[in-house]
Amino acid sequence: MKVYGWMMVLALSFLFTACGDRAGKSARGEQTEERPAGLPSTVATMPGDASAPFRVQEIRLTPENPTIATPVDADPVCTGSMPEGIVFAYQWIVNNEVVAAATGPTLDPQHFRKKAWVSCRVVPSWPGGKGEEVRSPYVRIANAAPLLQPAPSTPFEAPGKFQYQIQATDPDGDELTYQLLSPQGQGIEVDAKTGLLSWSISQERADALKGAVEIIFAVLDGDDGQAQATLRLQFSPKKAP
To answer: Rounded to whole angstroms, how far apart are CA atoms 73 and 79?
Structure first.
């Protein structure tokens, strides 16, 4: 009887994809698919002129497709000569409500959730002068993809049963589903709810296995976000004592 040793490398080359729309009714409550009225969805960009009077031309929000995994930054784009001693006053709006606790150029993720609408109003001022309020376009907080974490495995010899507990979290708190991508038809099973991967390897299958076997699985959040990873099992005949 052949007995096979094993070596597993978590080639956890994670792949993440996610998408989401832009909407919200309350930063902490019910969401809506309607963009808040009153602000444009885009702002036209005009060429700057250092000799022109100073003004804030537009407010750019980054990243363009934010999620709750990252803060949102407001960047005033200015034209003309910058006055000395200039300061910018920031007012963040989430779903048409002012975020009183956010007064700087960065909005922390604790102030919004998935599908919320976010914008920023900026007023420049300097000794002896004050500019007009400029509003950014709204951006919508997109869906964040699940996050996979490497997990330890238990000792295993073929023939026998190999098990691996997939570990993942979702920044948005979405319910996760686990799925085997490949190889199919080899008896590998993944529990869709718990993420437990199991593979009962018979003597016949162990004899047929040669070299490396790559098991590719995915974690899905039900909102077009997913992460993929690869488990690499290396089978080789175990040397006799």
So the answer is: 20
CA distances to 56, 231, 233 from 63, rounded to whole Å, are 20, 32, 38
The CATH number that domain 4-19+145-236 falls under is: 2.60.40.60
The CA angle 88-91-95, to the nearest 5 degrees, is: 155
* Domain extents in the chain: 4-19+145-236, 20-142
| Contact (CB, 8 A) for 142 and 18 | yes
CB 6 within 8 A of CB 235: yes
| Residue 137 near residue 42 (C-beta atoms within 8 A) | yes
Which residue type, as a one-letter code, is found at position 241?
A: P
Which residues sit opposite 90 in a β-bridge? 122
- In the numeric block, which tokens belong to residue 123? 């007023």
Topology of the domain comprising 20-142:
Immunoglobulin-like (2.60.40)
- Cα separation, 226 vs 222, in Å, equals 8
CA dist 127 and 106 (Å) reads 24
Question: How far does the chain reach from its first CA to its final CA, in angstroms?
Answer: 14
Phi and psi for 137 in degrees, rounded to 5? -70, 160
d(CA 222, CA 17): 12
pLDDT digits (tens, 9 = 90+) for 152-205: 877 778 889 999 999 999 999 999 999 999 999 999 999 999 999 999 998 888
Contacts of 50 (CB under 8 A, 6+ apart): 79, 80, 81
pLDDT tens digit sequence for 21-78: 433 333 334 444 566 765 544 333 334 455 678 999 999 999 999 999 999 999 999 9
